[in-house]
Write a structure and sequence with these properties.
Structural class: alpha/beta
CATH class of the largest domain: Alpha Beta
Strand content: 15-25%
Helix content: 25-40%
Radius of gyration: 18 Å
Distance between the termini: 29 Å
Largest sheet: 8 strands, parallel, barrel
Strand order of the largest sheet: 1-2-5-6-7-8-9-10
Order of helices and strands: HEHEEHEHEHEHEHEHEHEHE
Length: 273
Amino acid sequence: MKKIFIALLIMMSAQAFAQNQEIRVFSHRGGRLEFDENTMSAFQASYDAGYRGFEIDVRLTKDGKLMLFHDNSLDRCTDATGPLEDKTFMELMQVRTKAGNKLCTLDEFLDFIKDSHDMDVYVEFEVKTNPHLYPQAKLEELCDKLFKAVNAKKPRGAQFLFTSSDYRALRYLQTHHKTDDLLMITSKPLNAETIAMCKNMGITRIGAKMDGTSRQSVKDAHKAGLVVSLWPGKSIADFMLGAYLGADFLCTDIPVEYMKFAAEKAPWLKIKY
């Protein structure tokens, strides 16, 4: 059944892409289902595979350092427990992922991007500010430090975006740092409600859930002046569905598998990695 579904999506996307639309596909957490998420080994592996687009998750340590980590707790991915925010930078330098890698700092990632000397790098910096862990003052500290660090090391020609599902962070970056390099993440599909929400916030980029999104809603978003990114990117079926729906950007947890499939089974797709 899965193979039939993918084959159907291939045929549908072939027809849809007669209009020569280009999709930007980026490595989500460095390709979390193929590599050790949010670590330098993952980013290097995705880069070596040909990716110049990345999504990372940024958090603040107990003593105010910026680290890359997705979950509210260290338990799933590391040999430590509890929130990253409860530990100092030096404590976290002793932590190892379950694959044996050390945690990655924001500075390490930015230096990696800067040293690559690529002119066409795309990065989404997701602000991971769960309200329970980030009262307003701490949220503002994270946003201020992130904005300063990112812009201090941004290569010429790179496209850097600040993203979040915590709209407090987006509003703060918008009002205090006067940036429009923002993307609103929603756990809902793209529809009239989420399009209006994004427009009302004065944001021109939206990351919406693929399930429940239609081709018409993507067209409506484009008419409203929005750039559309769809998630998740866990499977080839997600990839082909996102292509058929007409997304501008797609994340992937399986970057190597995506590239291989696109080259062999869907060569008509215009993809920038």
